[in-house]
What does this fold into?
Amino acid sequence: MINEVTLRLNADPYILSALREDITSEDVSTNCVMPKAKKGSVDLICKQDGIICGLPIFARVFQLLDEKTKVEFYVSDGDEVKKGQLMAKVEGDIRILLSGERTALNYLQRMSGVATYTHEVAALLKGSNTKLLDTRKTTPNNRLFEKYAVKVGGGNNHRYNLTDGVMLKDNHIGAAGSITKAVTMAKEYAPFVRKIEVEVENLDMVKEAVEAGADIIMLDNMSHEDMQKAMEIINHKAEVEVSGNVTRENIKRLVDLGVDYVSSGALTHSAPILDISLKNLHPIE
It folds into this structure.
């Protein structure tokens, strides 16, 4: 699970890499108009209703460029924000404010977009016992930030990476020869504390996964009728996850199944950004 502590402990190398991507040697535009240090202030303005997320990362971008930069927030991660709302003021060397602006906003807009989309999808499961999960379908080198945003938006994290858990997908099963063989091999290799999840695509695979002793069975891209039959076959012998092209537009149809989890790659790979700007930059004494 990714929380704010995990985020802060692991974020710096990624942020520094993003800054190096944007500033190869110097910020030419800024150095043209601001050759010397001068203190300034700029406002962080929300331009669209949504869920704000990524404020610690936004601030850290500027602080890595200059630790004396001050950020005063008027909102917290997870808050609902409105178009036109003043969310923060940033004070420091104007050169730092200009050079860090795009990287800081890129993180904040992306993370807030994921949190907002997740919040909307999670609301559609409200009243059920089904938990909303993310997936590993994340932007390379941004998984930490995107999975944190899912949590802030009201979703839950699936495994963080390949080390986190055993998930036997179609190609693993193909490599092993069958579900039964794959589960048997996983039980022999993996620590006993690890649950074993098996991805299935039809009812015959569901039956085999149950008989093999899978802890979690993922119903992947199955019809609603077949998923109902699968729930009868499983009959509480394993936890059940549903996956496969789950979006805000179609997740409601899954509520009646009574599954334990619904995973959606769309939370991270299809969420639009939340429109946010830094405005009103001016020198201060």
Q: What stands out?
A: The chain has a mean pLDDT of 97. The radius of gyration is 23 Å.
